[in-house]
Amino acid sequence: MHVKVIMSSLVLALLVGCGHDGDKNIDDEVSVLISSYALTGDPSTNRTIPSINSPKAQLGMKLFYTKGLGGDKDSACVTCHHPVLGGGDNLSLSVGVGAVIEDLLGEGRLHDASSAHYDGFAPVPRNAPSTLNIALWDSVLFWDGRVQSITPNAGENGSVGGIRTPDSAFGFVDLSAGANLTVAQARFPVTSPEEMKGFVFEAGNSNDVLRTALATRFVSQTITNTWQNEFDSVYGTNSVNFPNIVDAIGEYERSQVFVNTPWKAYVQGDTSAISTEAKHGAKLFFSSYEAGGMNCVMCHSGDFFTDESFHVAAMPQVGRGKGDGVEDDFGRMRESSDSVDKYAFRTPTLLNVEMTGPWGHAGGYTSLRAVVTHMVNPDTAVPGYDLSQLDSMVKTTNTASNTALALAQLNANRTAGISPHQSVIATDGQIDNLVEFLKTLTDPCTKDRNCLSPWIPDNLSGPDSLQLNAVDQASSLL
Ligand code: HEC
Ligand code: HEC
Predict the structure, then answer these.
(1) Which of 73, 170, 323, 359 is most buried when burial is the number of CB atoms within 10 A of its CB?
(2) Cβ-contact 40, 267 below 8 angstroms
(3) Cα 144 to middle of ligand 2, angstroms
(4) How remote is the CA of residue 348 from the centroid of ligand 2, in Å?
(5) Given this model, what pLDDT does residue 474 score?
């Protein structure tokens, strides 16, 4: 017995020793890559990030949760961007207005058969991206970048030099855009019939008339409320107006910075912060094709893991599309009118990517492993795409043909030397390692309801009794 114990501790010591030696090599290799890309692990430095406890962010949180900004008072920002759901809605494609149960978020949120324009499929054509870390974008918001900083500089969130929005022509400043990209974006969900406006409220009127009408609701007491008091204490007397509404919402969103990841700890020197598998995944992610890597870093670059630029990835085109082709979505080309941008979408950040599924511009993938497999080799992923992963509200009538067109575009771009994205034949183990690496980009707070509680209002009665009281399918409070 005694001998056995000694034996096993010897074996253990040997194993640990071996692992350590192995890890030392991979640590050295990853360290060289980290230095060559000058990574710090923290994309939030040199930025002005509001505290969630600031008066503006607190006001913004109540506005983010109010269905009073929905035309029919049945949809709020949080409907599609809940902190517990990774800052999204956990759906491939969103259901905004006309849901069967207004306050039910995530899986099981269905479009009501009696609501306007019902056809059995999710009304919104793209996947809702995360609001988490929205303050870290400096160049473009939306999948097609239609909110865009004219002179993007690192660390500014578009606050200097003007912003283009759908209210101004491509390349031109929208003088009403507001303080930064986040505020500029917040002016638009309320104008979308499917997301928030509905089909009756202010129908046919301009965006600005609609926005004023929403603010007027709060002042005129069309909805019984105490918003005036709330605004007075933050913005001064008679300050309920649409620019202040979106300013406060923007500050709430910008306070949602979640970057304390195991990867950050690793980059900053804690070699035990991530697993050996994740280290091998990192090596693949940051190494060039020539060096046997996957070159993901070419587009998912920097500490925020995005070049904020547009590329064709031939991600599955599910859903009803944006009115291009037959239920298709031409992505960035819709904005730039440049055929080189056909099927190009903005490179997503990969921070907290584990929490922000489904993935892709239309939510075509419902597992992280599947989307990683696609990015490694779109040529084999597209013909092998499994429709059964989607929920029944995702329209797939033209998915195969449209996605094949996007893949053909990717290949044309490769031939023309425009796309450096190669298809790599990877082993299952390599894919596993990449997935393990991506999971080190999750801030544990995003998985913890208690840790997220500062971003979820306590008093759900709120200033207008229209605060969305989120439940999930299990009827637990989100
Ligand atoms: C019905 C669901 C829905 C509602 C409600 C909604 N959004 Fe979104 N949101 C989306 C979708 C879908 C997109 C992506 C659209 C696109 O890129 O074309 C998006 C994009 C965004 C983005 C850009 C994220 C990025 O990374 O570029 C932000 C920020 C955002 N929404 C904030 C808001 C705010 C603020 C509100 C309320 C005023 C709101 N959303 C209401 C679904 C919704
Ligand atoms: C040529 C640029 C490019 C390269 C190389 C690249 N990506 Fe991407 N990635 C993108 C773009 C663009 C998208 C969004 C495409 C879409 O939805 O249409 C994306 C989407 C993703 C997503 C989904 C994220 C989300 O929030 O929906 C993941 C995960 C991802 N990439 C991981 C990787 C990995 C891992 C690699 C390396 C194997 C890689 N990417 C290589 C540009 C790139």
Answers:
(1) 359
(2) yes
(3) 14
(4) 7
(5) 83
In the prediction, which pLDDT does 171 show?
Answer: 96
**pLDDT tens digits for range 70-114:** 999 999 999 999 999 999 999 999 999 999 999 999 999 999 999
User: Around Cβ 222, how many Cβ atoms within 10 Å?
Assistant: 12
CA-to-CA distance for 411 and 391, rounded, in angstroms?
Answer: 30
Could you give phi then psi for residue 293, rounded to 5 degrees?
-95, -170
**Domain ranges within the chain, ordered by starting residue:** 55-136+178-256+449-455, 262-439
For residue range 333-351, list pLDDT tens digits in order. 999 999 999 999 999 999 9
Ligand nearest the Cα of residue 382 is: 2
Just give the CATH number of 55-136+178-256+449-455. Answer: 1.10.760.10
Whole-number Å distance, alpha carbon 328 to ligand 2 midpoint, is: 20
Burial (CB < 10 A; 0-12, 13-18, 19+), residue 467, is buried
Query: Would the CATH topology of 55-136+178-256+449-455 be identical to that of 262-439?
Result: yes
Sequence-distant contacts of 49-53: CB under 8 A, at least 24 apart: 49/135, 49/254, 49/255, 49/257, 50/251, 50/254, 50/255, 51/255, 52/252, 52/255, 52/256, 52/454, 52/455, 53/454
Tokens 């606050």 sit on residue: 159
> Rounded to an integer, what is the distance from CA 328 to the centroid of its chain?
21
Measured at the CA of 380, the angle between CA 377 and CA 384, to 5 degrees, comes to: 130
Ligand 2: which atom is nearest the Cα of residue 353? 26
Q: Is the dihedral of CA 239, 243, 244, 245 positive or negative?
A: positive
In the chain, the largest separation of any two C-alpha atoms, in whole Å, equals 86
Q: What is the phi/psi pair of residue 191, to 5°?
A: -90, -10
